[in-house]
Amino acid sequence: MNKKDIIICRCEDVTLEDIHQCLEQGYTTFEEIKRILRIGMGPCQGQTCSILVQREIAKFLGKKVEDVKTHKTRPLTTGVVLEDIAGAKDE
Q1: Checking CA distances to 34, which of 22, 27, 50, 79 falls within 20 to 30 Å?
Q2: Is the dihedral of CA 80, 83, 85, 91 positive or negative?
């Protein structure tokens, strides 16, 4: 099977080849790869792909998976209607 055909992050449509290209370019932390490929930023917030990315980083660096830091999880944000803000009173 081709690396282009293996999807690692379904939310952001990132392939194994994409991960390997980042690693070969010198991006070797989850946070760096996350910023470039948006892994862990989709609706599942990395619930599916984070361990897969960790495993690829560990293999590339010759480390144990446990020694590779995962990404920082941040809460999802939603839009706010400006009218709601403008109409709010100090409480």
Answers
A1: 79
A2: negative
Q: Quick one: tokens of 71?
A: 């990404």
Gyration radius from the chain CA atoms: 17
Kindly report the backbone phi and psi dihedral angles of residue 10, in degrees, each rounded to the nearest multiple of 5, phi listed first: -70, -30
- pLDDT tens digits, residue range 18-38? 999 999 999 999 999 999 999
Three-state DSSP state, 5: helix
**pTM of whole model > 0.85?**
no
9 strand-pairing partners? 14
**Sequential DSSP letters for 52-84:** HHHHHHHHHHT--GGGS--PPP--------HHH
The whole-angstrom separation of Cα 2 and Cα 40 is 23
